[in-house]
Amino acid sequence: MTFHQLSLIAFGAGCLIHGIQSALVARLWRQTPGASLFGVRAGFRICVLAFFWQFGNFFWELTGTGGFIRAVALVLFPLLFSYMIDDAGWFGRVNRVFRYALWPWSILALIQVAFPSAPGDPGLGPSLTIETTLYLMLLYFVAFSVRGWLGRRSLPADGPAAVRRANQAGVTAALLGSAMFILMLGSGGLIRPDWLAYVNLAAMMTSVPFTIAIAYHMYQLPFMDAFVREVLSGLILLSAVVIVLAAAAPLLLPDLLVLLTMVCAVALAYAREPVTRWVEHRFMGYQGSIEEQEERVGMAIRGFTRTDGLASSVSEIVRKELDADWVRIETAPVSGAACHFEIPGLSAMYLSLGPRAGGRRYMSRHLRVSRTTALQLATHLQQLSHHELRETTARAQMKALQAQINPHFLFNTLNVLASLIHTSPAKAERVTEELAEIFRYALESTRKEWVKLEDELHFLESYLEIEKARFEERLAFRFDVDPKAGPLLVPAMILQPLVENAVIHGISPKVEGGEVRIIARIEGERLIVTVEDTGAGRGNRGRRHGTGIGLSNVTERLKHLCGDETVLQIEDLVPSGTRVSLALPLLTGVPS
Question: What pLDDT was estimated at residue 37?
Answer without folding.
Answer: 63
